[in-house]
Design brief:
Elements: E1 5-8, E2 13-17, E3 22-26, E4 39-41, E5 47-49, E6 52-55, E7 60-64, H1 70-87, E8 94-100, E9 104-111, E10 116-119, E11 124-125, H2 130-142
Parallel strand pairs: 7-8
Antiparallel strand pairs: 1-6, 2-3, 4-5, 6-7, 8-9, 9-10, 9-11
Length: 143
């Protein structure tokens, strides 16, 4: 497995795990934080800051559902996946995404060839579905 970059729009600091060669981001206290903003701009309509982006064999974009609204959050996810498609140099046929409130998770896939977003109808909840949720995320990023 290559290097995995996890980008968060909030404050974070890199931590390198040499045994697995995965670069992770570790949160520090408010006084120790360094702000890292990761913005993309495709055009005037497709621009903004990504919440979490994991560049791996399969890309994964995770966004926060504002005001705990998964429906509006999924619309935002779809737009961000379209922007990511135009921005990334990845040759992967699929871009994966998730929208979350922290307790509720819903996944989607952007099919790059036919420019279509598909939403998984299952909603995963933490802590009830935590083991399944972790398996899905690991499965996506490991390809």
């Amino acid at each position: 497995m290559g290097v995995v970059f996890v980008i968060r729009k909030k404050s974070c600091e890199p931590l390198v795990d040499k045994s697995s060669r995965i670069q992770k981001w570790q949160m520090f206290s408010e006084s120790d934080r360094r702000v890292i903003e990761y913005s993309i701009a495709v055009n005037d309509y497709l621009k903004g800051t990504l919440d979490y982006y994991i560049a791996a064999p399969q890309n994964l974009l995770v966004i926060e559902a504002k005001q705990s609204d998964l429906v509006r959050g999924f619309t935002q996810l779809a737009v961000e996946l379209i922007a990511l498609d135009r921005w990334t140099k990845s040759t992967s046929e699929l871009l994966y995404g998730a929208v979350t409130t922290g307790e509720d998770w819903r996944f989607g896939v952007y099919h790059r060839a036919n420019r279509q977003v598909t939403q998984d109808q299952k909603r995963y909840q933490v802590p009830e579905d935590l083991s399944v949720l972790v398996k899905i995320i690991v499965g996506i990023i490991s390809g």
